[in-house]
Amino acid sequence: MRTVEIAPSFEDWQAAARTLLHDGVPPAEVRWRETAHGEQRSLLTEPAPPPPSGGARVPRKFLDLAREAAVAADPTRWQVLYEVLWRLVHENRDLLDAEGDPTMRRLKALSKREGEGAAEFVPPGASLAELRAAAAKCTGCDLYRHATQTVFGLGPADARIVFVGEQPGDQEDRKGAPFVGPAGEVFDRVLAEVGLARTRLYVTNAVKHFKFVEKGKRRIHQTPRMSELTACRPWLEAELALIKPGVLVCLGATAAHAVFGADFRLMKDRGRFAPTRWADKTIATLHPSAVLRGEDETQQARLYGILLEDLRLVAGA
Ligand code: URA
Ligand code: SF4
User: Fold this and answer.
1) Cα 122 to middle of ligand 1, angstroms
2) Rounded to whole angstroms, how far apart are CA atoms 14 and 84?
3) Ligand closest to CA 207
4) Cα 127 to chain centroid, rounded
5) Which of the listed residues 7, 9, 67, 252 has the most CB atoms within 10 Å of its CB?
6) Rounded distance between C-alpha atoms, residue 128 and residue 288, angstroms
7) With a 6 A CB cut-off, is 27 part of the ligand 1 pocket?
């Protein structure tokens, strides 16, 4: 049995795997051990020999899968990777296409990176356009599976005012832009009334994929769970860190909870500026779709009045 110590990275695994392959060590005879963060490998074992150059050629697709699996949390991933590599070289060049193979299934599951949140998809130091492109590929929670596309925030990177809604709705999911459905109509109306130009605002959502249940032909919005809000949060954090708004507006309870915390009570705490770590002036108000859900016209007018009143504060800030 050979114990191989690597820093938990693709590059370290690859270097070690090359040496093992070169020495003809089969997977069953390797025990993989991850060095703790900052631990000196050379203090524990002999220094790793430089990997032999050249060596076996493996399909590029394997390297892509391996790179993705390398960032999974499962400590057995190094073993799985080496087993697949070994078999690609010694048994079956077409192993990657063997659907029913249990080890291949494990590799594919490891490389999917589902459900672990958006953090690992957020490129460090990215521009807004780069964030948007990266978010299009996010599988940080299950919501991407049924939705049409990621609906990222929209607006100039130097916007002074940022609006955060809950999540895209049916229309937004189809069109790929926030607040372009019925709630967007109410939003546009109230913006016009208080004199805010939408083109100068940055508008986004706390969750970037549409969550719904199908009822016949209709897709009915479902409120995202706390775990989905948490999973998606890195995108909102990244947007806000880049834009650094002077004024941050939460539309509805979900956005308010994401920004002010779970204790925030919308109807009690709305309509007042408070500083947060994202903006000196942060405020929450009704969600435009709450206006649409009002029971009758009187109620709808009353709710619209509240939204209008709060957005007048925003326009004057
Ligand atoms: N509701 C939201 O919260 N966001 C949208 O983008 C659309 C509807
Ligand atoms: Fe990623 Fe957010 Fe979509 Fe979940 S909802 S897949 S975290 S972008």
Assistant:
1) 22
2) 13
3) 2
4) 16
5) 252
6) 26
7) no
Ligand 1 mean position, distance from CA 205 (Å)? 7
Rounded CA separation 86/306 (Å):
65
Domain ranges of the chain: 2-112, 119-316
pLDDT of residue 111: 78
Contact (Cβ atoms closer than 8 angstroms) between residue 64 and residue 35: no
pLDDT value of position 61:
87
Reduced to 3 states (helix: H, G, I; strand: E, B; else coil), residue 223 is coil
Tokens in use for 3? Answer: 């114990």
Classify domain 119-316 by CATH architecture. Answer: 3-Layer(aba) Sandwich (3.40)
Tell me which residue has tokens 């880049």.
242
Distance of alpha carbon 10 from alpha carbon 82, whole angstroms: 12
Instruction: Report residues of the chain scoring pLDDT below 70.
Output: 37-56, 112-115
Report, in angstroms and rounded to the nearest whole number, the Rg of the chain calculated over CA atoms: 25
CA distance 209 to 192: 27
CA 177 to ligand 1 center in whole angstroms: 9
pTM of the model: 0.69
The terminus-to-terminus CA distance of the chain in angstroms comes to 68
Q: Is 213 helix (H, G, I), strand (E, B) or coil?
A: strand
Closest ligand (CA of 167):
1
Ligand closest to Cα of 173 equals 1
Which numbered atom of ligand 1 lies nearest the CA of 255? Answer: 3
**pLDDT attached to residue 49:** 59
pLDDT value of residue 55: 64
Please provide residue 78's backbone torsions phi and psi, each rounded to the nearest 5 degrees.
-65, -40
